[in-house]
Design goal:
Elements: E1 3-10, E2 46-54, H1 88-92, H2 127-135, H3 139-157, H4 172-180, E3 183-188, E4 194-199, H5 219-227, E5 233-236, E6 239-248, E7 254-260, E8 263-271, H6 275-288, E9 297-302, E10 306-312, E11 316-317, H7 318-325, H8 340-356, H9 371-389, E12 392-393, E13 402-406, E14 410-414, E15 421-422, H10 440-443, H11 451-465, H12 478-484, H13 496-505, H14 516-520, H15 528-542, H16 552-559, H17 561-564, H18 575-581, H19 592-604, H20 611-617, H21 622-631, H22 635-646
Antiparallel strand pairs: 1-2, 3-4, 5-6, 6-7, 7-8, 8-10, 9-10, 11-13, 12-15, 13-14
Protein name: Serine/threonine-protein kinase/endoribonuclease IRE1a
Keywords: Kinase, Transferase
Length: 660
Amino acid sequence: MTVAEIGYAFLCQDFENPFIGATMNTSYELGPEIGHDFDLPFACQSKGIIQRFRKHNNSDSSRRDNHGKPKMLPAPAPDPMAFMQPKADKLSELHHNDGGEGVLTLPPLETRVSGIVDAYDVRTPYKNVLSMLFEQSTALSLLLLAMTVVGFVVRNSLVAKGQFLLSGRPSLSNSRTAASKRKKVRKLGKNGAVVEKKVENMSSGNENGFSISKDASDPFLDLNKLVRGGAQGRNVGKLFVSNTEIAKGSNGTVVYEGIYEGRPVAVKRLVRALHDVAFKEIQNLIASDQHPNIVRWYGVENDKDFVYLSLERCTCSLDDLIQTYSDSSCNSVFGEDQATRAMIEYKLRLDSVKVIIRDLSLWKADGHPSPLLLSLMRDLVSGLVHLHELGIIHRDLKPQNVLIIKERSFCAKLSDMGISRRLLGDMSSLGCGSSGWQAPEQLLHGRQTRAVDLFSLGCVLFFCITGGRHPFGDRLERDINITKNQVDLFLLECIPEAEDLISRLLNPDPQLRPCALEVLHHPLFWSSEMRLSFLRDTSDRVELEDRETDSNLLKALESSASVSLGAKWDEKIEPIFITNIGRYRRYKFDSVRDLLRVVRNKLNHYRELPEEIQELVGPVPEGFDGYFATRFPRLLIEVYKVVSRYCREEECFHKYFKSN
């Protein structure tokens, strides 16, 4: 043998104190938390090297000491958790010499013991046995020593108590209670004494073979509390699932807090019978979750009953966010037949969301959505554009499936793709969704295309802008109203851009709904700078039209005057402003074309305006845009409709109209 090594390891799992009267003075322990009031011949969870020899050459004097004896290799530091199990065939090789070259008889063992064994007290009852073995000079004695030590280790490890690993001294009552629950197996040891082999009832909660005791005092549970920050739960593969529930879904789906490979996650637990749904969701997430507006997927685990999806942890849902600010009662969310407890839990969840978003503003004083709310709605549309570009239809778009995440800023992400389908080209599909948020073709079991998501999107955008209302009425009557196209957009009249977009999204004819990319570039989501830029470009375009010729563009623009202006536009502008613009040219106060020219000229020459006019219209772009928008709220959307009909294919308008 090149190297011969004998060592020991002592793993405590259950303990019945067979060493009464034995003492130990060791330099290595697991720490003061062990707390036992008696000593063991070895420290719990310890490992050490008794002796190690190495083959040497006669010519190699560096491997011999001054007396010509082989030098001993230093023993490694003891490993408290590793359990070394020598194999019989390797032990037999220690004293076997078949005459082959390079196999030497081991030199006599010295009585010195390296490593942790140096700590044995002379009063130990095993001193005589060890001394006798150490005095032998043959390899057989080395084998007997190893077998003796390993025998003690194996036998006593079966009865060592696991709670010595981590925490303090067990009480006598606990020991007796635990003993009464164990299954005892009696057998004879080598010396004729009766040994009780005790088997703990362990839970099989982990698929990887790491069992957790059902006993609440089990130290492994304490370790889980320490690692998981006090959370109660269980491990499933790489995933820790806590008992803290985040949300509930249909068909037994529940979402819990959890940790996946050290990362906080939301654990979506699905009944194993719904493995097809889980598989589809995983497929769609893998294909789409690299987009910033799609919830990330980190991994999947399963046991005999459930499938667990590890998803990006979010702050709250869009439904939670809107309902937190809404004055509507819980009756809009819960039916009268639902338990009061559910409503109480829902209110508590909303209160927790209020703490997180207490400084946020979702609506302006005039009822218009704030920049933050517009940004969240645009995130939602952006995620839907990404899905549709991949050929995926969501089919279950609703406020509960839009999640809000606070990173550097707040962001909205699409989730819950369990019933999503991938479509190729212009394919269609049959499927389902959530009551109250489905397109009419879904409710009537017709063929479904990407347009079903656009209908649901219209309902969700209405829900956001109106603070939790629904365009098709109360919860119980929504599906009927959807099939009958009984929609009420009265609450959007003060926001013309929103009314235009949502009315188109809720069109009962799927082919007349705009695509997701067109929605993303709708004026509802334009900044003040974009709005002013569009009005200026439109003014330049219509100025090219000859007033004397029959221009369809100019006719359509002027025919919208009654809606765009409401009256002569000079009646809505301060006299000081009218006086200023009259110095340079004459305007027709009933012409949309002329009002656009005013906007264009004063925007281009803003720095040349008198100070009082600048203070009146406000700074560019927000103040300037707000000045005209409050006086002519429908001007932008009516001009947009005309330009969309006649000029959208022109190069100068491409940035305002994107549909493919």
